[in-house]
Design brief:
Blueprint: E1 9-12, H1 17-27, E2 34-38, E3 44-48, E4 56-60, H2 67-82, E5 87-92, H3 111-122, E6 126-130, E7 145-148, H4 151-161, E8 166-170, H5 176-186, E9 189-199, E10 202-209, E11 216-224, H6 228-239, E12 244-252, H7 258-264, E13 269-273, E14 285-288, H8 291-302
Helix pairs in contact: 1-8, 2-3
Amino acid sequence: MPNVIPEAKIFSCTQSKALAEKIAAAYGTKLGNVITSTYSDGEFQPSFEESVRGSRVFIIGSTHPGADHLMEMLLMLDAAKRASARHITAVLPYFGWARQDRKDKPRVPIAAKMIASILETAGATRIITMDLHADQIQGFFEKPVDHLYASTVFLPHLKELGLDNLTVASPDMGGSKRAYAYSKALESDVVICYKQRAKANIISHMELIGNVEGKNVVLVDDMVDTAGTLTKAADLMMERGAKSVRAICTHPVLSGGAYDKIEKSKLMELIVTDSIPLKQESKKIKVVSCANLFADVMNRVHNNKSISSKFVM
């Protein structure tokens, strides 16, 4: 008698419920039933309200700050492990704390490595995530990591815009590899911004490497936090004669005064995914859903099919 693959079960952490519902619908199922009890002091306890024994469980939740988002993912992983789930996949559309991926000065943590270890200890047997801040973070895990690229959803959107004289730009040196990959797919030129920071989130100086005069520029980055780098780069490029400046950023962290900066900047449009829910609406921000990408990969993982095509930038 042939082996029958049992049905996968998809659950969601609170912070990613809207995206998880889209992923489940694209997968062809409904979210599993989870309830969360909260104590008066803020402590909370998630509970699976259906059996997961022997099942492949997907738990969807981005781990952007505050820390409760990460804690909820850890508690759900532990609950699934103690309920005898067969495989437990942590689906992290946004892997938070990833900017701390190395020791850049003495006596600081490598938070990305610590979070990887904690996720595995809690019960994750596989990780699915998208556009890590640094590719090498995959090596911090001992379990398999499927690292997806948001270019899968961004490139079709960019091609639909039909921009002439297109130039892809990186807002900093660290993103040059990503910018070159996009430029190869779009058959365009590349420019790079060189920036110096006074301290975290504070830029002291920025210069442009390359020519943008008369070009429609698309800035590419993995995340947008305070939007300081992005808006400063956009303003600089318009000063240097760019025809228009758009930006595509996978993860819309958008903290502090980010929304106000974007509204006041010379950015024509900021295109993001729904890996993190927006805190407020903005006419300049367009959301492209990554739900179909995650649903497709989860389906392939569950049915033991190749997902190598999803790793192509």
